[in-house]
Amino acid sequence: MKKAAKSSNKQKQKETNAECEKMEKEQEERHKQELASEQAPPPPAAAEAPPIVPEEEGAPQEEEDDEEGGVANKFYKTLHISSKNAKKQAKKKEQAEKMKAAQAADKEKAKNKDSERHQEKATIKMLLTKDHLRMVEISADGDCMYNSLVHQLQEEGIEISVRKLRKACGQYMREHKDDVAPFIADTDVDKSAQKTSDEKWETYLEGVEKLADQGGVWGGELELRAISQHYKKVILVYRAEGPHQIGAEFESAKDRPLRIVYLRLAYTLGEHYNSTELD
After folding, report:
1. For residue 272, which of 84, 231, 239, 266 is within the disulfide window of CB 3.0 to 4.6 Å?
2. What is the pLDDT of residues 6-21, one digit of tens each?
């Protein structure tokens, strides 16, 4: 009994000693951590945000790098662009309404077989029939004269676009200013009153070289002559008054003329050109 009691007491003593040692180690570790925390330098203060300076009205805004800012910038830029385009959209709408009204008027005129328009077209068809030709309808888009000539040139195996034909026409005029400029009236140049003669000339050429939907002007006699000279070809224009020949000096049995149609009364909005083909 005494031996067993002594053995039990020794075991408890060992466990108590071990527990004390564990507690001492944990306490020592806490002391070390607290000491290290006290000796560590204080964390840097948060950087002060720069003051927000209100931008002057109309001043350009810098692009923001963050995604949210980028989206905001795009939104306001789009808003600005849309605002700028408002007048253009209104103008397009006005033009579309005029076109619609003109088309309605043209349909009404087409029903009247005694109208000047109908008589003009009938007369030209008779002239074309004599030369074994028929009319080819060209879109009335402001580039009709150039489109009709593009059709004729392509029939001759010359690949050309309206844009290139306008450029070629303008280039010939630039190179032969003395032959062309005297025939350009102020009425041919938009808002030319305050311009010098050189400025009027340049404005006119810009109108020749641009497509109609980009501000280009309609083609006429001067442009027909320039294109005739550039390609060294006869251009035969069928009109109600009779065929009108341009570039007679290039007449040749081997080279057929470029044959187009001029309709003075074709549309309410103005004159029109069509092309031709063999009947």
Report:
1. 266
2. 455 556 566 666 665 6
Whether the full predicted model's pTM is greater than 0.85, yes or no, is no
Structural domain boundaries enclosing 247:
122-278
In a domain, 69, yes or no: no
Nearest Cα neighbor of 221 from 241, 201, 244, 204 is 244
The count of domains in the chain is 1
Give dist(CA 177, CA 196) in Å, integer.
Answer: 15
Residues of the chain with pLDDT under 50: 1-6, 45-82, 192
For 276, counting Cβ atoms within 10 Å of its Cβ (0-12 exposed, 13-18 middle, 19+ buried), the class is buried
Which two structure tokens, joined as six digits, stand for 177? 């200013």
The position carrying tokens 């938009």 is 190
Query: Is 273 contained in some domain?
Result: yes
pLDDT per residue over 38-85, tens digit each? 555 555 544 444 444 444 444 444 444 444 444 344 433 433 444 556
241, part of any domain: yes
Of 177, 180, 207, the residue nearest 192 (C-alpha)? 207
Is 185 a domain residue?
A: yes
Neighbours of 233 (CB within 10 A): 23
